[in-house]
Amino acid sequence: MLIRQTVHIKKNNNALSINGIVIIIFYIFETSLRIHHIKEIDVVDIISRNNLIYYENSTSFNIYDFCSQPQSSCLPPFIDISEEFVRKIITVPKYKLLNCVMPKCFSTTTTKVFSYLYDPEKYQTFEWNHNGISSTSHENDYSSVENFLQNTQTPQDELKNWRMSVFIRDPLDRFISAFINKCYIEREYISPGLMYPGKELCYGCQTNLTCFMLKQYKRSFMYGKRMTKFTGYEDQHTYPQNWFCNFKKFKKQYKIYKTYSDRKGIENYNKNILEMLDKRNIDDDKIKYIVDNILMEFSRKKRELKYDIIMKYIYNGIINDIKNYHKLPIILKNEILSTPLLYKTFISTYYQDYLQFSFNFPKPNFTESHITL
Questions:
Q1: Entry pTM
Q2: Transmembrane residues, as ranges (predicted)?
Q3: Per-residue pLDDT at 84
Q4: 3-class SS of residue 156
Q5: Phi, psi for residue 75 in degrees, rounded to 5
Q6: DSSP for residue 364
Q7: Which residues pair with 99 in a beta bridge?
Q8: CA separation for the pair 169, 175 (Å, rounded)
Q9: Cα–Cα 20 to 30 A to 26, which of 9, 107, 113, 359?
């Protein structure tokens, strides 16, 4: 009897082993096929499918026609970025505050405000470094709204009692800010292989705008098609904003604040933060601390870097070595708006951001051959 059972178990184990091998072979085949397909993607060909359709005998065109063309190169809206390590939802349960931290939209300052409100004592003894870790990391932050609801056992209907907010930014302004920060500055001091094994930040493009835009569009295109599930460091700062914050499901519940990088934009950001806090009846002494120690630091024309002194010198040294650093945003913006390929790539990537958040589309500085409507 024991021998029969042993034989039966061995047969089952053999069957399981065969099934396991088949699954592994199928997975390898599927992965190889996907890699081959990815290599075959011709970004320039995809972008070239869309034309700027000009009115007859005119230099104006209807931007809304751009993404309605057959086999459009435009990215789809509301692709939820859902990765556990990307913790973009921050909360202060005491005041029922929830914010979706949008990268490159004053995210560091917003995180500091929420971290302070969550645990003032811990915030004041925390040494902030340039590593994305807050004083309350993994205490009041979550990968998504639904992750927050599940982990805190909060009914979705309860969200109506919360102040849900998000700061967003003009897509062109945000993209250029990300490109300068990652490809001109951080690339110089973040070691190759730290983000991706054997590769440097910005995909080896260094400061080549065309190279970076095409590679980043390809990554966005693949993510939108679900051909890849991994979200990289550059992706986090350049993917369309409508892909964050679970906007597809919760957009109507957010109070959406528009931000800009100029002085007026910073003033409006500070005003919006204080308005948000005032409506939750937060103590005056806490608001005063935020104004004096977080918003004031953020508003200085020359903001000091609070992380270690060596990092400060490295950062400032890199900036000083960049030719025309303070003019870079204008130079790069003109390059995008003056180059048909770059402009089409940009609009293909961020069309839905302009549409969903009612930003004014940037106008190109060129005209193509007129196409009669």
A1: 0.83
A2: 12-29
A3: 66
A4: helix
A5: -75, 145
A6: P
A7: 90, 165
A8: 9
A9: 9
Question: How many Å separate Cα 274 from the centre of its chain?
Answer: 25
Task: Identify the bridge partners of residue 169 per DSSP, sorted by sequence position.
Answer: 259
Q: Assess contact for 116 and 131: CB atoms under 8 A.
A: no
Q: Counting beta carbons within 10 angstroms of the beta carbon of residue 7, is it exposed (0 to 12), middle (13 to 18) or buried (19 or more)?
A: exposed
* Surface-to-core class of residue 262, CB atoms within 10 Å of its CB (0-12 exposed, 13-18 middle, 19+ buried): exposed
Q: How would residue 49 be classed by pLDDT, with cut points 50, 70 and 90?
A: confident
Under the banding of pLDDT at 50, 70 and 90, the label for residue 53 is low
Contact 43, 213 (CB under 8 A): no
Tokens of 363: 């106008």
Say what the alpha-carbon torsion angle 335, 341, 217, 256 is, to the nearest 10 degrees: 60
Distance of CA 366 to the CA centre of its chain: 29
Report the C-alpha gap between 330 and 325 in whole angstroms: 10
Tell me the HSE value of 189 on the side-chain side, using a 13 A CA sphere: 15
Q: Where are the domains of the chain?
A: 89-357
Q: pLDDT tens for residues 332-363?
A: 999 999 999 999 999 999 999 999 999 999 99
What kind and span of H or E run contains 89? strand 89-92
The yes-or-no verdict on residue 204 having pLDDT over 80 is: yes
Output the six-digit token pair for 137.
């990391």
The Cα–Cα gap between 192 and 204 comes to 10
Kindly tell me if the per-residue pLDDT of 258 is higher than 80: yes
Tokens of 10: 């061995």
The candidate with the shortest Cα–Cα distance to 209, out of 337, 361, 324, is: 337
Query: Per-residue pLDDT for 7 more than 60?
Result: no
Contact 75, 221 (CB under 8 A): yes
Q: Per-residue confidence at 148, pLDDT binned at 50, 70, 90?
A: very high
